[in-house]
């Protein structure tokens, strides 16, 4: 996701939940879902940055990427689940 300006991109979340190794631009919003992982690269928002991120993913051992991708997918599902987000908002409004 090579954006210069991006909110918390639903496409990025969907890709991660589906277990797709991802290269995300290091911009506000996308940075919120970054985890240190062999399957998720945060790069400068430039053609060179994206190319380097993709090259790094390609050069990483496939088994390492697969295992990391599975962990990232589980973490993103846990943190960004809509039901949990709604419950967190309700807690804020109720003053819990």
Most strands sheet? 2 strands, parallel
From the helix content, strand content and strand pairing, which structural class follows? mainly alpha
> What's the number of domains?
1
- N to C succession of SSEs: HEEHHH
Average pLDDT, all residues: 82
Q: Let me know the number of strands.
A: 2
Low-confidence stretches: none
What's the layout of helices and strands?
Layout: H1 10-17, E1 22-25, E2 40-43, H2 47-59, H3 62-80, H4 82-94
Parallel strand pairs: 1-2
Features:
96 residues, mainly alpha, two-stranded parallel sheet, 2 strands, 8% strand
Structure characterization notes:
This protein is mainly alpha-helical and 96 residues long. The chain has one domain. Helices cover 55% and strands 8% of the residues. It has helices spanning 10-17, 47-59, 62-80, 82-94; strands spanning 22-25, 40-43. It is flat, with a radius of gyration of 15 Å. It starts with 9 loop residues before the first helix and ends with a helix.
Structure at a glance:
With 96 residues, this protein is mainly alpha-helical. The chain has helices at residues 10-17, 47-59, 62-80, 82-94; strands at residues 22-25, 40-43.
């Amino acid at each position: 996701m090579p954006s210069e300006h991006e909110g918390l991109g639903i496409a990025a979340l969907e890709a991660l939940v589906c277990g797709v190794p991802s290269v995300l631009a290091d911009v506000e919003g996308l940075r919120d879902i970054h985890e240190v992982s062999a399957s998720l690269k945060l790069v400068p928002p430039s053609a060179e940055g994206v190319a380097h991120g993709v090259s790094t993913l390609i050069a990483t051992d496939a088994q390492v990427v697969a295992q990391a991708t599975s962990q990232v997918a589980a973490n993103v599902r846990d943190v960004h689940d809509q039901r949990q987000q709604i419950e967190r908002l309700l807690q804020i409004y109720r003053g819990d």
